[in-house]
Amino acid sequence: MKKVAVIMGSDSDLPVVKPAIDTLKKYGVECEARILSAHRTPEQLRAFAAGARAAGFGAIIAAAGKAAHLAGAVAANTTLPVIGIPVKSTALDGMDALLATVQMPSGIPVATVAIDGAKNAALLSLQILAVTDEELARKLDETRAADSAAVLEKDRKLAEEI
Ligand code: RP5
């Protein structure tokens, strides 16, 4: 099975990114976590993105805050699917990172999830891998069904209580 890369712009992003790593592990998908920055380590980031397909990756998650050019810089150097996580920082509550991540120019797509939306980033990467992996697709379907059943159970309990 293909691997998923999880890149963060700084070690300070790790608490936000951790749910993505945990979700990938829960589904048994190999992930490689890296700290690489569009601004602080541009050469190393470019080399990683350019070699990612040959290295066996099927999708790349990129999380960054502030002037969040990380996901875009990755996408500029690979045609693997790139999923951007805008990370909330203090000054502008993550709106800066959201706009920097989502507003990509035509031709270089980044699939952007919600601010701090690490779990959805992981799930989206799994759904991408599941296009060609029936076992993974089955696991994702099972989780959806279980999540749905949990909501319906809460709905039933609420109706009983009120
Ligand atoms: C971004 O700037 C990083 O992704 C991080 O979210 C933010 C702050 O980085 P540090 O100053 O904490 O290293 O590049």
Describe the fold and architecture.
- The chain has 162 residues and is an alpha/beta fold.
- It folds into 2 domains: 3-131, Rossmann fold; 134-162.
- Helix content is 48%, strand content 17%.
- The protein has helices spanning 14-26, 42-51, 70-75, 95-102, 118-130, 134-161; strands at 3-8, 31-35, 57-65, 82-87, 111-112.
- A 5-stranded parallel sheet has the order 2-1-3-4-5.
- Strand 1 (3-8), helix 1 and strand 2 (31-35) form a beta-alpha-beta unit.
- Helix 1 (14-26) runs parallel beside helix 5 and helix 5 (118-130) packs across helix 6.
- The longest helix has 28 residues, at 134-161.
- The model has no long low-confidence stretch (mean pLDDT 98).
- Residues 9-10, 12-13, 37, 64-66, 87, 89 line the site of 5-O-phosphono-beta-D-ribofuranose.
- 5-O-phosphono-beta-D-ribofuranose (RP5) is lined by residues 9-10, 12-13, 37, 64-66, 87, 89.
Q: Secondary structure elements and their pairing?
A:
Blueprint lengths: L2 E6 L5 H13 L4 E5 L6 H10 L5 E9 L4 H6 L6 E6 L7 H8 L8 E2 L5 H13 L3 H28 L1
Helix pairs in contact: 1-5, 5-6
The protein binds 5-O-phosphono-beta-D-ribofuranose.
5-O-phosphono-beta-D-ribofuranose binds next to strand 3.
